[in-house]
Specification:
InterPro entries: Endothetial_C_recpt (IPR015669), MHC_I-like_Ag-recog (IPR011161), MHC_I-like_Ag-recog_sf (IPR037055), MHC_I/II-like_Ag-recog (IPR011162). By secondary structure, the protein is of the alpha+beta class. The protein has five helices and eight strands. An eight-stranded antiparallel sheet has the order 4-3-2-1-5-6-7-8.
Length: about 220
């Protein structure tokens, strides 16, 4: 049932034909007793393009040739394994006896009048945690009330170009450009070029999850 709901959401079941074009990704990480579990999906123009389950990312739409896709699969798997090993190591030094759940939802929309909107939202254990303000490349706290973990995560994410300027460029320029090309229907060449960018989005999100190790550490002890 959960998979059907995910697929329905990614495929835009019941969507308005006049709705804006969308390029979105949902990625979840669950950490419990030192073990990490990953799952999520990416969709382009209402079609499920990639599915992440555990350490495996699957190309649902044939956007990349098999050889190129195999290389990207290895990159994603290597990163996830590295992240999992870090969590195991840190959990031995500072055990966390409860489950942590991190949810990242990001992407962009292109409206019929040519305007666009990009977003990046993060929640921790079901509560709004952080969001990325794309126009000025800043992370903003969303947690209700004072919270040392949210303060810590915000400061960490603001330290690096990859999680500020690079992310801003991807969401504000690259992501929107994908939808503009899709809208213009420029042919097979542009459709194939989407795939590295989709995986770039996935890898960008996972890189941010590397910062989340600090969140888990901070939550389990002192920042």
């Amino acid at each position: 049932m959960l998979r059907l709901l995910l697929l329905c959401g990614a495929l835009g079941c019941g969507a308005d034909p006049a709705a804006p074009l969308a390029f979105t990704m949902l990625q979840r990480t669950r950490v419990s007793q030192g073990n990490s579990l990953f799952w999520g999906n990416a969709s382009l123009d209402g079609q499920l393009s990639h599915l992440l389950e555990g350490l495996n990312v699957t190309q649902v739409l044939p956007l990349e040739p098999p050889d190129a896709w195999a290389r990207r699969q290895r990159e994603v798997t290597s990163y996830l394994m590295y992240f999992s090993q870090l969590v195991k190591l840190f959990s031995k030094e500072r055990p966390i006896n409860y489950t942590q759940s991190l949810r990242c939802h990001l992407g962009c929309h292109l409206f019929p009048n040519g305007t666009a909107h990009s977003f990046y939202e993060v929640s921790l254990n079901g509560t709004a945690f952080l969001s990325f303000h794309v126009p000025n490349a800043t992370w903003q706290r969303r947690w209700p009330g004072p919270h040392p973990v949210a303060d810590y995560a915000q400061k960490e994410l603001m330290k690096y170009p990859m999680t500020t300027q690079d992310l801003q460029h991807f969401l504000n320029t690259t992501c929107v450009g994908i939808l503009q090309a899709q809208s213009a229907r420029t042919g097979k060449q542009s459709t194939r070029s989407h795939a590295p960018l989709v995986l770039g989005l996935i890898l960008g999100t996972l890189a941010l999850l590397g910062m989340a190790v600090g969140i888990f550490l901070c939550t389990g002890g002192s920042c």
